[in-house]
Structure prediction request, 697 residues.
Amino acid sequence: MNLSKFTVMASLFALTGLASCEKEAEEVIIEQPQVKIENGHFTPEALMSMGAVTDPQVSPDGTKVLYGVKFESIEQNKSNRELWVVGVDGSNPTRITTTAKGEQNAVWINGGNKIAFLYPQDGKMQIWTMNPDGTDRKVVSNVENGVDGFVLSPDETKVAFISQVKWATDAKDLYPEHDKANVRIITDMMYKHWDEWVKTIPHSFVADFDGAQVTNIVDMLQDEPYEAPMKPFGGVESLAWAPDGKSVVYVSRKKTGMAYALSTNSDLYQYNLETKETKNLTEGMMGYDTNPRFSKSGRYLAWLSMERDGYESDMNRIFILDMENGEKKHLTANWDYAVDQMAWSPNEKAIFFTAPYLGCAPMFKIDVETAEITTIADGEYDYAAVVPVNDDTVITLRHSLQEPNEVYAVTAGEVKKLSTVNDEMLASLNNVTVKKVLVPTTDGKQMTTWVVLPPNFDETKKYPAILYCQGGPQQPVSQFWSYRWNLRLMASQGYIVIAPNRRGLPGFGTEWNEQISGDYPGQNMKDYFAAVDHMKKEPYVDGDHIGAVGASYGGFSVYWLAGNHEGRFKALIAHAGIFNMEAQYLETEEMWFANWDMGGAFWEKDNKVAQRTFACSPHKYVKNWTAPILITAGELDYRILSSQAEMAFNAATLLGVPAKMVLYPDENHWILKPQNSLIWQKEFFAWLDKYLKEEAK
Prediction:
């Protein structure tokens, strides 16, 4: 391993933004695509034309909300994010940026008189400032490797930010005389992660900031070979300034190589700016510790904590640390559901949070003293942000299976819509119907299942159906909105969509969530069969034309169902799924996941859980495959390698099962590029239509 010191230069140049703006004027600005809607029909093009609303930020005076809206351009094959401001009362929604590359991490500064944000400069993200109306844009940092995210200190005299440092040894380091060589030399695990061969790791830095210039940069992990925040998805939520501005808390899992691959034990570290000393605040707490949040006075630090090492889907609990006496309190000890997002009320008496709960994601408030939990916003929606305005009002994002995110204000149980980015598009579309169905399971329980019915549904007719298999495996089937796995879009093509909250999903208590671990081919597969068999009893479901689709663990589910469904399915689609579990165990990068969920290694012959898991690998049932199968994967997916898709496709073809494989050389676990995504949708529905509609004629 070679960890070089990170060198940075930071300075402000008065005219830095000028050349950038002149260059940008020549680029095409991505606006909301104009898609023609015919007869109210929802198409993949219409889905991709909808704006993605993200990251609301309340102004210091509590009167305005800053938020981002991202649009995709199929023609340019990229996306762009612009900034908007709206009053907390919903008044005067105003777009404040019109640029070609998109502003990120935007926050209010200078009492609301300025906005700081990230924007490219010379090909690297830097910190910029501008007026609240978008004028007077200036770049204020010149960080050598760019800025991935930043958080200003409470007095705004300092900034903590994330940037990459070199990590890895390549051939040129060892053999500089062979400067044209292209060789990876690997001596430990975690050499690849998510969608990259790891050459750099994120570090957290602190610097001075005077409103015009970032200077005196210090690496809080100088010479340490650890990620802070953690890849692949850690960001600014992993950083928290103490209100007095004298310290920063950051999240890190201070392990490398195989130790890192086997553990989820991250901790919260407090870095003292004056002494440059670092203190582990959660030492001895063995699972993920993330999302630190100081109360307004700095008396308390709240964070999300998992209990067990190696279990990435353990229940997220809210813990509080008294910074004066060092006492820790498990605030949600009597709450049997995992917490997603949280934020302190300004008076420090409560914490607002969201959580998967019975098939939705309501917003709650927990009293810090009594631990009493109150529901403050619910219904058949998912709430996806928590940004308090005051002790009574919270700004949030809300979506459902019917509509994407918009900005809302929640006050004393009253919910008010503030943004209307997608209202016009939604109004032009035929409505679908979402039903909540309780399905009896084989072990005598009731399973919440979302059923989405097509537009203009006629119960006297028969419709083909799709079983939606969730990924994760422990991700909720709530009122989610996806820009690819969109259940409303599926229903709009004339399908009944069946989306069960099978075993292994959060929102139904710990026992329900954890049952799947070590039991991949067990009860949760019975739950899928139970949902299909229950819906087949409805006279409007064409029981002879049902498909099953899914990604990641959902892709594994489809592969397993392919060999065990006993004629239930006439078409299958698997994306990024596990086909051969023995191969997956040695191909994936995060070994803690494989060990926990599979039960251990396939060579552990005395390990009954592991042996059962591998004995039931989907590839061992391939001789039973009969249903036509579409297989898709990204070649940059290092979580579940595309070789899994290739094995499945080859097996199906050799066995004479109708099969098609669609590979994406420049995509990871997800299909993200607009044109790639559109092709995926076209292949998806063409396959279902061929085997579930045309054959039914």
